[in-house]
């Protein structure tokens, strides 16, 4: 068996509009100017406490905790009203990979469990992923804890597993856990930062996976 683990925001789901709006509401609630778009997208993928610490290192810990709470409340409200769209080809790609009896699919995301379960239900993905790791249970990316848990839960060795993501945190996490990383060019960090394996469309992923595992078998 082999394992393909996906990041969510910026990889499968284009949640940029919700992220930026929730960040603006959280900062506005404390009377602060929101960070610009580039600064916010740079921290996507980190767990919220670490993200806020990078965005506003001069704030006190209690103030950053207020930002985290404000962001969660704002994002939850937006999520209840509108669903962030999937990137083109995401649904078809997951369906195709799920039909391969030699593959397991997993998730490693900075989302909360509540947010991820909402997304799974909205897209009819219950049962699609055999392992789902969230920010509630692990240190923030790029710590390898999420991927190590994926490997433990599936019993799959790291050489038979691949991480697919859009940020440097995903790629660093993959390296730290001994997995190959595959970057996607449409996400929140520039493709040039993601290493040698980057795809420009989901239709290219099966061939990239085959190339990785052919190399490892050689």
From TrEMBL:
GO biological process: DNA repair
GO MF annotations in UniProt: phosphoglycolate phosphatase activity
A Pfam family assignment: HAD_2
Superkingdom assignment: Bacteria
Record's GO cellular component terms: cytosol
InterPro entries: HAD-like_hydrolase_sf, HAD-like_sf, HAD-SF_hydro_IA, HAD_2, HAD_sf, PGP-like_dom2
NCBIfam families noted in UniProt: HAD-SF-IA-v1, HAD-SF-IA-v3
Protein name in the entry: Phosphoglycolate phosphatase
Source organism phylogeny: Bacteria, Pseudomonadati, Pseudomonadota, Alphaproteobacteria, Rhodobacterales
């Amino acid at each position: 068996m082999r394992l393909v683990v996906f990041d969510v925001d910026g990889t499968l789901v284009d949640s940029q509009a919700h992220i930026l709006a929730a960040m603006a509401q959280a900062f506005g609630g404390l009377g602060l100017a929101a960070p610009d778009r580039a600064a916010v997208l740079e921290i996507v993928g980190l767990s919220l406490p670490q993200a806020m610490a990078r965005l506003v290192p001069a704030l006190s810990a209690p103030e950053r905790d207020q930002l985290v709470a404000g962001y969660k409340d704002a994002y939850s409200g937006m999520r209840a009203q509108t669903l962030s769209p999937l990137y083109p080809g995401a649904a078809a790609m997951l369906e195709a990979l799920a039909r391969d009896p030699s593959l397991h699919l997993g998730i490693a995301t900075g989302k909360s469990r509540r947010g991820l379960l909402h997304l799974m239900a909205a897209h009819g993905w219950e049962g699609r992923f055999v392992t789902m790791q969230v920010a509630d249970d692990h240190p923030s990316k790029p710590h390898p804890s999420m991927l190590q848990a994926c490997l433990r839960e599936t019993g799959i060795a790291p050489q038979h597993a691949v991480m697919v993501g859009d940020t440097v945190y995903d790629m660093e996490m993959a390296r730290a856990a001994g997995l190959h990383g595959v970057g996607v060019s449409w996400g929140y960090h520039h493709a040039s930062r993601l290493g040698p394996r980057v795809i420009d469309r989901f239709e290219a992923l099966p061939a990239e996976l085959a190339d990785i595992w052919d190399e490892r078998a050689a």
